[in-house]
Amino acid sequence: MTLAPLARPARLRTGARVAVVSPSGPVPADRLEPGLDILRGWGLDPVPMPHVLDVHRELDYLAGTDEGRARDLGDAWCDPSVEAVICARGGYGAQRMVDLVDWAAVREAGPKVFVGYSDITALHEAFALRAGFATLHGPMVGTDAFLKDPRTQESLRATLFEPETVRTLGLEDARALVPGRARGITYGGCVSLLAAGLGTPDARASARGGLLVIEDTTEDPYSLDRILTQLLRAGALDGVAGVACGSWAGCGPYEKVRAVLADRLGALGVPVVEELGFGHGPTGLTIPLGVPAVLDAPADGGPATLTAEVPALL
């Protein structure tokens, strides 16, 4: 099966109501409020869902109970007054609640803007495979990059309101790890979450026709090797058209990370771009998932880019 474009939601306009959820780890109130203020400054109406600040009584790495986190996501999605759902942070926990979401009701409600990264990768894959909706791999309102980095903020703002202006993506340091040019449908996210999804209801049967975007944080080079090897051995990368790599914050010296990426991904025989500029780094560009795009990795050492063939939002 070849990956196909997914249903895109409508762009946002001034006054749009945006639900903020915590599907994974807890977010402190003193980090949530400044993020909400940024959204308000864009003319949006952010509404924290009831469990957004919860902390699990015993497992304090979770934002409350699995049922509460799933209820917040489902209620937000099925509320016709809500036009977008943005995650507060990642952490861990999305895999615990994803099967508790009423995906039939989500499909019935139709596509909406959904933004997050890191552990939220589990939900990006679920929206793609269970609902058929395109999503945005982008910054979350309680994270450092969103609170402190103007370029991260502007990438998301422009994607939400003027998506045709940010179709070509890539920081100045983006270069070819394996040169070439490829076209496909964007998918992916945090690579350890993709590996953790193997064997679950949200495991992809094929990567054929896909442009894989991957990044991660605090995974040592040997651990990244293991993650990529698992994906390769499982056949999860068979038929992939190209790979765009983002940030590897806290994963060790980049020359060692780069060696792992070259060793494991180079054998695929497809274009691979490094340091495109998304994920856990100090700047996190917003990457549309589920849209046709072109990955350009020039052999002459020039800047590499990922260009969406259509705007991320309608």
What percentage of amino acids are in beta strands? 15-25%
Query: Taking strands numbered 1, 2, ... along the chain, how are they ordered across the largest sheet?
Result: 6-14-13-8-9-10-11-7
Q: Number of DSSP helices?
A: 10
Element-by-element helix/strand order:
EHEHEHHEHEHHEEEHEHEHEEEE
Description of the molecule:
This protein has 314 residues and is α/β, with parallel strands linked by helices. 31% of the residues lie in helices and 20% in strands. It contains 10 helices and 14 strands. The protein has an 8-stranded mixed β-sheet. The chain has a 6-stranded mixed β-sheet with strand order 2-1-3-4-5-12, with helices on both faces. A hairpin with a 7-residue loop joins strand 13 (292-297) and strand 14. Helix 9 runs parallel beside helix 10 (254-266). The protein is globular, with a radius of gyration of 18 Å. The protein starts with 16 loop residues before the first strand and ends in a 6-residue tail after the last strand. The model has no long low-confidence stretch (mean pLDDT 97).
